[in-house]
Amino acid sequence: MSVFKDAGHLFRFAGLFVLAFLIFLVVRHYVVPKSFGEYGHYRGAAMGEIAAHPAKFAGHETCEGCHTEEATKKQAGKHAQVNCEACHGAIYRRLPAPEQPKPNLYERFVALVVKPAPPDPPLLRHAEDPTVKPELPDTAVLCARCHTASAAKPKGFPQVDPAEHYPGPPCGSCHQPHSPAMDGGGVK
Amino acid sequence: MNGVEGFMYPNEVGLQWSVLIVLYPFITGLVAGAFILASLERVFRVEAVKPTYRLALLTALSFLLVAPLPLQLHLGHPERSPEMYFTPHSTSAMAMFGYVYLWYLMAVLVLEIWLDYRREIVLLSQTSRGLLRLVYRVMTLGSSNISERALAIDERAGWIVTLIGIPSAFLLHGYVGFIFGSIKANPWWSSPLMPVVFIFSAMVSGIAGVMLLYMGITKLRKQSIDMACVDSIAMYLFYIFIIDFSLEMLDLVHRIYEADESFRSLNFMVHTRLYFSHIVIQIFLGTITPLILLFVTQVVKLPEMARKRIYAIAGSLALIGIFAMRWNVVIGGQLFSKSFLGYTTYKMGLVTKEGLLVAIALTLLPLVFLWVLVKLLPPWPEKSAQAVAVGG
Amino acid sequence: MNISRRQILILLPAAAVAWKSVLAGSPEDAPNYKMSDHWWSMLIDISKCIGCGNCVRACQTENDVPEGNFRTWVERYHVSDENMTEPEVISPKGGKDGFPVAQEDGKKYFFVPKMCNHCADSPCTQVCPVGATFISPDGVVLVDQKYCLGCAYCVQACPYGCRYIHPQKEVADKCTLCYHRITQGLTTACCEACPTGARQLADLKNPKDPIHEFLKTHNVQVLKPQMATGAKVFYNDLDGSVR
Fold it and tell me: What is the spatial distance between Cα C157 and Cα B16, in angstroms, rounded to a whole number?
């Protein structure tokens, strides 16, 4: 038909589109991650990857599993609801990063444009290896964080003015941190 | 303290979207506006603007080719941007960028340019030498049919493409307005008017841009400017500018009248941190002044020289004003805290990936592309007549 | 198609192995944790917060939060009875090192810990162009940092300012409700470190969780309720001046 003869170039242009679309479909099949769409419009495997991060704080139940004496003392005193790591912090040590495989050509090319984030080095916690030792907190600094008197803090909360309340010696010289009340047997 | 006044949420202090994100809607706005000007002739049969038809299309293409660059430079992981093609999120306005861009580039702009230039392309593929010959031959897609019938089909097809191209141009730029307008978290942006304001300001910038380019290039080529054409363009520019100004005033008046929880904070911001760019540049220099200048040319009969000068000044001011509008929307929207209790400052880098030099380079790059396109596909009527003489 | 008994005996274990490898990497695979059993939220009790900053420090430690950004932070409000609509708010370094001592001046002070609200109708997941941020089936809004483009659209869309772009990884980052901890039966780092119990992790799907009783007996609010984000961090004793 003559109209097709004179519109041939239009069909060629359309043909480019069709070809590009087919290539797109093929590439898409290989490139889209397999777990995408499993639970919603996102990569289902992402949740597992996030959940696999190592935890640094052990959680008070883990501490109390070994440190039963301190735990019992704390349960009876004013700091019963203050968890161990609230004062002692997370006790862990970073291990040296394992040998990273050399980046291939594609990865090096991408790195020119986008610097890859370094992977988190593994860590070892005190709960797994007691030789990872904590630094005992300095009561002169630690206690003040919570107990320095301020008009901003709730009225019922125990707070003192460090300039008036026995200035000089650190708090720990009189108060036993695990059971700090003076009349509850918490005096050192 | 690092440019913060009052209180800001701690993560809000540094701006996320830089001058490159200001540049992106400015560029796509020029694309959409230039295309609308071209469609005035093609679809609405405004003969007066015909001399700028091909130039407008080439301008649109030059800017469209540069448009993804500021976005790529902004992304933390540009190598992952194909994800927008493979897994676009249907609830995200930004996700449609990939497809709308591709559609507009290939199915509208490139197709229309190709259809309009096909005759010259075929002729040039037969008369040029060397590498150029190869380029033109590829562009013919292997078809050298420039019979009357084929060209008539091209004409009809081009008309349809332009017709589809008008809403496509609105989509290409309107979706950017929706990207901002649909963010309920940001009261400076959140507004149903935002896509409409973007589209009309885009038309102002595109029309002004093509008018300036036509006047400038014609002067460089030592040819005479078709005054009927420029007068006509200036008239359309004037009327669309009025609509754009009205929309922005409507937004302003509405804000002041309703005075919701964000008003005091935004009002303070406009009077202090945004005063120069918003009141001085965008409103007075960039909108009211060109409107008055254009108004004068519409009601007073002025000699040609005066009209040319006024059009040049009004057009330049309009472009600056529209850029300032994008700046005030993007940067302004990030200068105030969502707590409405504080403000920060935008520290634009100079030589950084998203800094001033890159922004300037990206603004000039389309002109480089335009130069190449003008050489490859001359938009001038005399040139195409030569091609006919040589090939025909 | 006729499958013989022999073929079934061979196919079934193979299918089971294949199925396990499909599941591997999802929290379903972790011992005893089923996503559909949980709908996580948090309770923050303003009357108990003393602004010590323990939560901010603990979160920064646990999650390697970059300097200058915060997955959680504490704000201090100073409100006058004459002008409730313009409180003075400070958050020095996010409250990481506590707050300066406040003097009594007849006005009201209180602390407000803030974090991602893990909204059920979150605007941030709505705007992500590629599906890199999402709400998990157990109610935690997460970022897939291997998929994120770093476009920062989600950062713009969050009404609470809880998101940021990680300066080294160049992807969106925010509070994950310590997903790596709660899926193992631990509580979040911020709750673990809080000395007064002002922050409590809660599981709305667990009928034994104390939050159910608490919500019935206390006046509880979410931040910016007018935004209708379905925020799941509930505040007890939240003052009307809080932004």
Answer: 12
